[in-house]
């Protein structure tokens, strides 16, 4: 643990200073950091998975606090916690033999396993999977019973001492599995562009007009892929004030030979009637299907809805956030420096602090994000395919466990 | 209360007469409504819990002496009525308790026999009050649980049987726990300074607001009157007792006050497969008004209220009627709309707060399909 602390503090500092740009970079670096946290973690003799999860949680808490706006950090931390749980359960299911080392963070499951180690591996695995899954109607009546209905004496107490050698190898295996799975996660983050752009030809048809706002790497790759498949289409790029990333995207598209038109953000409504589809990137997708996206996106979405143009959001699954937005326009937003909008010298005479009660007459507000409510989104394209906003919860249930929504160390919460 | 309940027990079945009164809504009115004008006194009496509890317990003891003697089909309904009369027990809990009692008194020796017996009892219970959605949903849920348990790991019939009974009797706890979970989940949705509109009395919504108040959140509640049983008055009384600023509206003032409302919180009698809800009369129009003014509508409902129904419109449900007191005699030859509930389609609901988590309306069908298919 002490070995990774400098790494952690360095990354925390970077996040705090907003040195890491874009949720992809953040997600990747978070995953790498957590991988080194896991590999540096010294496995104890009991409850390895819980201790491991706790270590991850401790680091995760710091990272999330460092930049609560960058939801990708929290997503990756939760994904890793979920991985630890999954690996732990699969390893218990395989080598069941009287081992009481479930180390599930879920207490019910823990005691259930301790009570009757003689249950068949299959049954136990089934229960473990239930514990992992979000609560459902199916388990409403039966979640607690395993520990209470059949109370058999805990005979595994003697075993656990004798098998310490076996255990340490098991612990190593668990750690190894978790590290491998985090490696897979990093690969998944890296390859999400390919996975998404593979679907491009299904959505972009010949002679279509596509509108996008600002610059998103996912959108760029998506359009490239369609171009490579010899689709002819035109792209309107809204420039994405105040950072004008749209200009960059336009240049990149032209280099690939895509017919491109740059428009101002305020011209979106004027042009939307000629557009067949809006394809945009996102900063984060919330659990209700709402989208946190670069500023100006809500306006585009509203224009698209007015003219019944499909509004498609492309995003890697690391942007999928299991939280519900509460007052997202304020709480999940960030105000950037006004220098994007104005040159410093330009308005210096308006910045006179001596007027009135010391507040300047001119205020400059530069929010980074917009919240697009789920009803304005027609389709999400993620690395697992196309999904409607109301289906997002399913993906979330697949990637995260329900009890990890709040990332906090167990010791502090209980 | 006693004569009313007796009357309900006598003739609740909608098939017996044209103006049949829904037993479900009768119970609700008994538990939550303030029918008389001296409702404050009544509520104050209810607030002084220890004494009334003792009286209740005595009454319960008296009834429980009667109820367990019964076995076979007829006993279910008595058992159900016994549980139903407890103000804190949800209807679903009463249903499952009644079914658990059937298992206990059953003389079946195989799982199959038990299932058949239970099926009979549950059908009887369901047809006894066809208007109660949570009753039939709870019966279905428990039957499903029985079927799944029987071919689960239990080889011995007695073990399986005792487990079923034990689980059934734990259901009261599950129900309470569900309410607690919902209250916890919904805390994120209530922010300081917000105004919440509630419709009539709902145990879950009250639990939510109670927890929010004890978390020292500052918010205001607008509470509709909830005609015809005026359950809203009971709700506002309980909220005021918690020190929450509360204002009572007549049901027709919802649109008028909607612009000062930040969110709508309603309970549900049943959540149907489309993700819409069936709830006391007036919920639909509140949801419509809220939707047109872009206010979120949150439904707080326990997951055992999820029912396998798919109403296509307002009339596509078993009719549930209730008497309405207009205060003045109704002119001769004038019809009265006595339906006790309406259906709110899913597109007017923002989120469902359930013990399974915060769900979008489309999750409901998913959960039901997972369970029943």
Which helices and strands occur, and which strands form pairs?
The complex is a heterodimer of chains A (414) and B (373).
Chain A: H1 5-16, H2 23-40, H3 48-66, H4 71-94, H5 107-115, H6 121-132, H7 145-149, H8 156-162, H9 164-197, H10 200-203, E1 208-213, H11 217-228, E2 233-238, H12 245-255, E3 259-263, H13 268-271, E4 277-280, E5 284-285, E6 291-294, H14 297-306, E7 311-314, H15 328-331, E8 369-372, E9 379-382, E10 385-387, H16 392-399, H17 410-413
Parallel strand pairs in A: 1-2, 1-4, 2-3, 4-7, 7-9
Antiparallel strand pairs in A: 5-6, 6-8, 9-10
Chain B: H1 2-10, H2 23-32, H3 39-47, H4 49-66, H5 74-84, H6 91-105, H7 111-128, H8 133-150, H9 157-186, E1 194-198, H10 203-214, E2 219-224, H11 231-241, E3 246-249, H12 254-257, E4 263-266, E5 270-271, E6 277-280, H13 283-292, E7 297-300, E8 341-344, E9 351-354, E10 357-359, H14 361-372
Parallel strand pairs in B: 1-2, 1-4, 2-3, 4-7, 7-9
Antiparallel strand pairs in B: 5-6, 6-8, 9-10
Keywords for this entry:
heterodimer; A: 414 residues; alpha/beta; Rossmann fold; 48% helix; globular; B: Four Helix Bundle (Hemerythrin (Met), subunit A); seven-stranded mixed sheet; 14 helices; disordered N terminus; Translation initiation factor eIF2B subunit beta (chain A); cytoplasm (chain A)
Give structural notes.
The complex is a heterodimer of chains A (414) and B (373). Chain A has helices spanning 5-16, 23-40, 48-66, 71-94, 107-115, 121-132, 145-149, 156-162, 164-197, 200-203, 217-228, 245-255, 268-271, 297-306, 328-331, 392-399, 410-413, and strands at residues 208-213, 233-238, 259-263, 277-280, 284-285, 291-294, 311-314, 369-372, 379-382, 385-387. With 414 residues, chain A is α/β, with parallel strands linked by helices. In chain A, the strands form 2 sheets. Chain A has a 7-stranded mixed β-sheet. A 3-stranded antiparallel β-sheet of chain A has the order 5-6-8, with helices on one face. Mean pLDDT of chain A is 81; it is low at 97-119 and 144-163. Chain B is α/β, with parallel strands linked by helices and 373 residues long. Chain B has 2 domains: 2-180, Four Helix Bundle (Hemerythrin (Met), subunit A); 181-372, Rossmann fold (3-Layer(aba) Sandwich), CATH 3.40.50. Chain B is built from 14 helices and 10 strands. Chain B is globular. The chains are: A alpha/beta (414), B alpha/beta (373). Chain A binds chain B through residues 119-120, 123, 134-138, 140-142, 144-145, 148-150, 287-289, 324, 326-327, 374, 390-391, 393-394, 402, and chain B through 141-142, 145, 148-149, 153, 159, 163, 166-167, 170-171, 174, 188-189, 191, 303-304, 306, 351, 355-363, 366-368, 370-371. Chain B: One of its GO terms (molecular function) is guanyl-nucleotide exchange factor activity. Chain B: Its main location: cytoplasm. Chain B: Keywords: Cytoplasm, Initiation factor, Protein biosynthesis. Chain B: InterPro entries: eIF2B_alpha/beta/delta, elF-2B_alpha_N, IF-2B-related, IF_2B-like_C, NagB/RpiA_transferase-like.
């Amino acid at each position: 643990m002490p070995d990774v602390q400098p790494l952690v503090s360095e990354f925390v500092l970077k996040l705090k200073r907003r040195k890491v740009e874009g949720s992809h970079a953040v997600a990747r670096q978070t995953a790498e950091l957590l991988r080194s946290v896991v590999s540096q973690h010294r496995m104890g003799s009991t409850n390895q998975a819980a201790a491991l999860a706790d270590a991850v949680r401790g680091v995760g808490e710091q990272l999330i606090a460092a930049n609560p706006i960058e939801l990708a950090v929290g997503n990756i931390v939760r994904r890793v916690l979920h991985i630890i749980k999954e690996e732990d359960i699969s390893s218990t299911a395989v080598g069941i033999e009287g081992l009481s080392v479930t180390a599930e963070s879920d207490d019910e499951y823990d005691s259930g396993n301790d009570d009757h180690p003689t249950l068949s591996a299959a049954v136990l695995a089934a229960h473990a999977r239930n514990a992992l899954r979000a609560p459902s109607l199916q388990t409403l009546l039966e979640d607690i019973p395993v520990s209470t209905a059949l109370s058999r004496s805990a005979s595994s107490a003697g075993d656990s001492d004798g098998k310490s050698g076996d255990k340490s190898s098991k612990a190593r295996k668990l750690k190894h599995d978790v590290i491998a799975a985090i490696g897979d996660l990093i690969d998944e983050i890296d390859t999400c562009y390919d996975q998404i752009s593979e679907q491009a030809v299904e959505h972009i048809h010949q002679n279509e007009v596509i509108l996008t706002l600002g610059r998103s790497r996912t959108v760029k790759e998506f359009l490239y892929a369609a171009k490579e498949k010899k689709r002819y289409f035109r792209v309107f790029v809204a420039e994405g004030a105040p950072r004008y990333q749209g200009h960059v995207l336009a240049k990149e598209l032209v280099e690939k030979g895509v017919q491109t038109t740059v428009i101002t953000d305020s011209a979106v409504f004027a042009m939307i009637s000629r557009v067949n589809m809006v394809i945009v990137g996102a900063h984060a997708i919330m659990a209700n299907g709402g989208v946190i996206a670069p500023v100006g996106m809500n306006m585009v979405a509203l224009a698209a809805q007015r003219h019944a143009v499909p509004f498609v959001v492309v995003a890697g699954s690391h942007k999928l956030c299991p939280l519900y937005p509460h007052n997202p326009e304020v709480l999940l937003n960030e105000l950037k420096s006004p220098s994007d909008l104005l040159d410093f010298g330009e308005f210096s005479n308006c910045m006179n602090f001596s007027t009135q009660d010391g507040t300047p007459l001119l205020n400059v507000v530069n929010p980074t994000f917009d919240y697009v409510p789920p009803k304005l989104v027609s389709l999400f394209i993620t690395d697992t395919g196309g999904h409607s906003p109301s289906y997002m919860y399913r993906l979330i249930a697949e990637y995260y466990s329900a009890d990890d929504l709040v990332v906090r160390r167990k010791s502090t919460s209980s | 209360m006693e004569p009313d309940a007796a009357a309900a027990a006598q003739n609740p079945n909608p098939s017996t007469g044209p103006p049949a009164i829904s037993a479900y809504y009768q119970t609700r009115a008994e538990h939550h409504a303030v029918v008389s004008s001296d409702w404050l006194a009544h509520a104050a009496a209810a607030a002084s819990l220890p004494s009334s509890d003792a009286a209740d317990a005595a009454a319960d003891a008296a009834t429980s002496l009667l109820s367990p003697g019964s076995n076979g089909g007829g006993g279910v309904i008595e058992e159900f009525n016994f549980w139903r009369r407890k103000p804190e027990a949800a209807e679903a809990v009463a249903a499952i308790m009644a079914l658990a009692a059937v298992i206990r008194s059953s003389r079946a020796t195989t799982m199959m026999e038990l299932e058949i017996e239970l099926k009979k009892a549950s059908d009887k219970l369901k047809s006894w009050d066809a208007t109660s959605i949570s009753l039939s949903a709870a019966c279905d849920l428990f039957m499903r649980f029985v079927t799944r348990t029987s071919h689960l790991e239990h080889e011995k019939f007695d073990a399986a049987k005792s487990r079923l009974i034990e689980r059934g009797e734990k259901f009261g706890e599950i129900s309470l726990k569900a309410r607690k979970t919902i209250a916890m989940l919904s805390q994120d949705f209530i922010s300081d300074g917000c105004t919440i509109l509630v419709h009539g009395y709902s145990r879950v919504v009250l639990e939510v607001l109670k927890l929010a108040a004890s978390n020292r959140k500052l918010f205001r509640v607008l509470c509709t009157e909830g005609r015809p049983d005026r359950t809203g008055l009971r709700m506002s009384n309980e909220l005021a007792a918690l020190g929450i600023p509360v204002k009572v509206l007549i049901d027709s003032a919802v649109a008028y006050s909607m612009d000062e409302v930040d969110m709508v919180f309603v309970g549900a009698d049943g959540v149907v497969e489309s993700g819409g809800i069936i709830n006391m009369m007036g919920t639909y129009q509140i949801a419509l008004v809220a939707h047109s003014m872009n206010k979120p509508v949150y439904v707080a409902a326990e997951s055992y209220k999820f029912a396998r129904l798919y109403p296509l419109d307002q009339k596509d449900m078993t009719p549930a009627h209730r008497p309405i007191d207009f205060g003045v005699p109704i002119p001769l030859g004038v019809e009265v709309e006595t339906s006790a509930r309406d259906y709110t389609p899913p597109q007017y609901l923002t989120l469902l707060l359930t013990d399974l988590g915060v769900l979008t309306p489309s999750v409901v069908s998913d959960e039901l399909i997972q369970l029943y298919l």
